[in-house]
């Protein structure tokens, strides 16, 4: 897949806000530099109207923010770019690292997650993924069956299986995710994780789940909830992430969530995740 990379001048104080807005516009990769942000999006999801929308958002931030440069990044450069920026990290109970940085001999009681991200979202670096990884041990029980909507690298489904879930099904509309999640399944030697390219239409017919993980973004979640919620078992839990603080009330008012109990909302930086129970 080919990507468009935008280099944007933006003061450090406004970078998180801009990342959140670009994320809602389907941007996937972000690199924060000194008063600059580099953001990337698949070429197929970028057009003049998105560029105009970004320019409007930048104007609203103040006169100094602007798109400095726009360039096309061909496929083959991505791994190299990622390899420079991805470092091992501890997130809650997990030690997350790529294959090119070996796990130290002693990671104590941490659970190892080996994730080679390539271009799929889910390095564990984004706050929305970290938020779920930190919370996951409290949500997943032994024997649970998991549905991972927008699986990206497969990191959340793999983590859930390592916590004792018996099986997981992940889906993603991004073809890189399908390939990459499958690679990460092999790396982590997890069994019973099936990944498919597509959206809710690829969920096995009639199947219901104990836990649904959905780290996508507000607009996609609003569209997908009517298809996801009926896939919850009785007392099943759904965790919605990829949301900003201000999205909480909009989400909780969604008709598809009407019959669910809101258990808890957690926040990390400006991002929130909402847990509900059927
Ligand atoms: C924020 S990433 C999350 C990746 C991973 N689950 C994580 O937590 O790190 C969202 C993923 O959802 C996928 N996605 C976006 N819209 C979707 C849709 N309508 N159906 C399925 N996947 C979608 C994107 O391709 C992307 O890989």
Task: Break the fold down into its secondary structure elements and pairings.
Layout: E1 3-9, H1 12-24, E2 29-33, E3 36-42, H2 48-61, E4 66-73, H3 78-85, E5 89-91, E6 94-97, E7 111-114, H4 127-139, E8 145-149, H5 155-162, E9 167-172, H6 175-188, E10 193-197, E11 209-215, H7 218-228, E12 232-244, H8 248-252, E13 261-268, E14 271-277
Parallel strand pairs: 6-7, 8-9, 8-11, 9-10, 11-12
Antiparallel strand pairs: 1-3, 1-4, 2-3, 5-6, 12-14, 13-14
This protein binds S-adenosylmethionine (SAM).
S-adenosylmethionine is lined by residues 120-122, 128-129, 132, 149-152, 155-156, 171-174, 177, 199, 215-216, 220, 224, 242.
In this entry the ligands are: S-adenosylmethionine
Q: Based on the structure given, which CATH architecture of the largest domain is correct? A: 3-Layer(aba) Sandwich
Shape estimate:
globular
Number of strands: 14
CATH topology of the largest domain: Rossmann fold
Identify the strand order in the major beta sheet: 10-9-8-11-12-14-13
CATH superfamily of the largest domain: Vaccinia Virus protein VP39
Q: Any idea what the radius of gyration is?
A: 18 Å
**Could you give the order of the helices and strands?**
EHEEHEHEEEHEHEHEEHEHEE
Structural class assignment: alpha/beta
Strand content: 25-35%
Distance between the termini: 38 Å
DSSP summary: helix tally = 8
Biggest sheet statistics:
7 strands, mixed
Q: How many distinct domains?
A: 2
Identify the CATH class of the largest domain: Alpha Beta
> How much helicity do the residues have?
25-40%
